[in-house]
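Lecture 7 notes: from sequence to structure.

We start with a single chain of 84 residues. Read the sequence below before looking at the structure.
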Amino acid sequence: MHYPRLDHVTTQTGGSRYAAVIVAAKRARQLNAHQRGWDDEGPVDVAGPRVRSLSHNQLTVALEEIAGGHIVGRHPNCDRGKDG
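Now the structure, written as tokens:
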């Protein structure tokens, strides 16, 4: 079994798998930049990992943060179809 479970992640992102993927990818990029200390535009000032993880994969760490409720986000395009 893979951890974290997808249903735990999607619960934190409004039930949307799309939002979970977008939020996790964005956070993984931030974790990568934090680890390097630089991004495409120079020095970065982003928070490091908010959970202790056995994984060194930044995407896994990001998913664990989301599942644990440390990162909550919703992508604005997720609610587009609900308003008509």
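The chain has one domain: 6-82. Keep this in mind for problem set 3.
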